[in-house]
Design brief:
This protein folds into 2 domains: about 140 residues, 60s Ribosomal Protein L30, Chain: A; about 160 residues, Phosphoribosyl-aminoimidazole Synthetase, Chain A, domain 2 (Alpha-Beta Complex). About 30% of the residues lie in helices and about 25% in strands. The protein is built from 8 helices and 13 strands. Helix 2 packs parallel to helix 3 and helix 5 packs antiparallel against helix 8. The longest helix has 18 residues. The two termini are about 30 Å apart.
Amino acid sequence: MPMEGSILLDHGAGGKASAELVGGLFAKHLGNEVLGQMDDAAVLPRPTGRLAVSTDSFVVDPIFFPGGDIGSLAVHGTVNDVAMRGATPLYLTVGFVLEEGLAIADLERVVASMAAAAKEAGVKVVAGDTKVVGRGQADKLFINTTGIGVIPEGLTLGAAQAKPGDAVLVSGTVGDHGVTIMASREGLGLDAPIASDSAPLNHLAAGLIKACPGLRTLRDPTRGGLATALNEIAALSGISIELDEAAIPIDPAVGGVCELLGLDPLYLANEGKLICIVDSEQAPAALNAMRADAHGKGAAIIGRCGGERAGRVWINTSVGGRRILDMLSGEPLPRIC
């Protein structure tokens, strides 16, 4: 039977109410043989390979939005960070900060969404924590996650691995998540349906690794968008990157909102897209591998890496010009993830 009512300070006190919340809600959806031991620390089997670890906190407003919610977003964001290093994500830890008065039905909806996202990604939640703060001391619900994965021996992917002559690809349309959150937050009455691209990318990444031994870099362009992520890669690899504007996939509805509001979709957050940099001879294989995955059907080759003017990112515009793409300056939309 679903729990009812709202979160009380008692739920964070460590007593009977806390036990009811853990057993009747969190364990109900996230339980497994490791989490079910309910000890102070999870004991995990020793993996073969190198460990990849990432941690992230999620404070998105609103907590529910078209295409996802704070729960699925927390799983996807951390799984993707681990996967971008070539690791197979295995485990997650989850910490919740709950505001007094949060509807328990909303919390259960979030936790159920996390469970579904973890199942799709093939990861287990092995440890967790819950804290409750008073009314006005948080905004409904914040989540912290840590992800643990394993990198096979002999594989080295990273933002510092790109080389001149490499091809640059993206797995689909950019800016979807940023526009969705903005539209939801501001109550924009959009005629065209727009939804977040929030998704786990570990299976897509695994397919790329298998298809392309010349793979150099995987990166998920979250806050700061495609342009900022490419600037980070260019700086760390000591290369330049040249893009073709006409080749960059942008959903027409997202492009229309950006044009109306004066935003550049290349700087808006994505939560289910990745950048791939690969030896140019293997670019067709990378493109095919992306398009074979449900989360990469809109993939495109969008540019190339060069050896001059290290750290610069250029874009050839659709009207025949050329301009520099710098890193994001300022914050167009806070609390995006």
